[in-house]
Design a protein that fits this description.
By secondary structure, the protein is an alpha/beta fold. Helix content is 35%, strand content 20%.
Length: 172
């Protein structure tokens, strides 16, 4: 099977949680286009980032360009093999310049939304992994007042297809 190609730059970074989740996750890999499209994949260890990249490619598509931190798990090993296999142009940020990676702002937004969702539902902090996945999907499926989106949802702007909402019934 062929995966669709995404005609945008995808930014990625690792979100670290303050506590282990009920599913044993300690961190998550966030993928974003910088315009409210998010995919978040909880991970046991930051070294599992290549699994998140493979899942992103299967679920969303192959980004033409990917910008990541200089962390080894986001450049070398299995991650590097996947990047090479799909011919993704990988760029890395310069040291001490987090503003180059739009995923940094996305992590801040996800943490804020997760905190709000957990407080509103009175759920324990250990359920952060569920709230984070939910927040990422809801934000991607919601219309935003950004001119770059041209009256489309972030999901539609990145993938080029209108999502079938019934696919996401388990997030409600």
């Amino acid at each position: 099977m062929r995966f669709p190609t995404l005609n945008c730059t995808i930014y990625t970074d690792t979100l670290f949680a303050k506590s282990k989740s009920v599913r044993g996750f300690t961190c998550a890999q966030l993928f974003t286009d910088g315009c409210k499209f998010y995919r978040l994949y909880p991970m046991l260890h930051k070294s599992d980032a290549h699994h998140a990249l493979a899942q992103f490619i299967q679920e969303v598509g192959i980004p033409r360009n990917c910008l990541a931190e200089q962390a080894p798990e986001e450049r070398l090993g299995e991650w590097g093999r996947i990047i090479s296999h799909y011919k993704i142009k990988l760029r890395t940020t310069e040291s001490y310049t987090p503003q180059q990676n739009r995923a940094e702002a996305g992590i801040g937004e996800m943490k804020k939304l997760v905190g709000r969702a957990l407080r509103h539902s009175a759920a324990p902090i250990e359920f952060w992994c569920y709230a984070a996945e939910w927040a990422a999907r809801i934000t991607s499926l919601t219309a935003h007042d950004l001119p770059v989106l041209k009256a489309r949802t972030p999901e539609e702007a990145v993938t080029g297809r209108t999502p079938d909402i019934s696919e996401y019934a388990h997030y409600s």
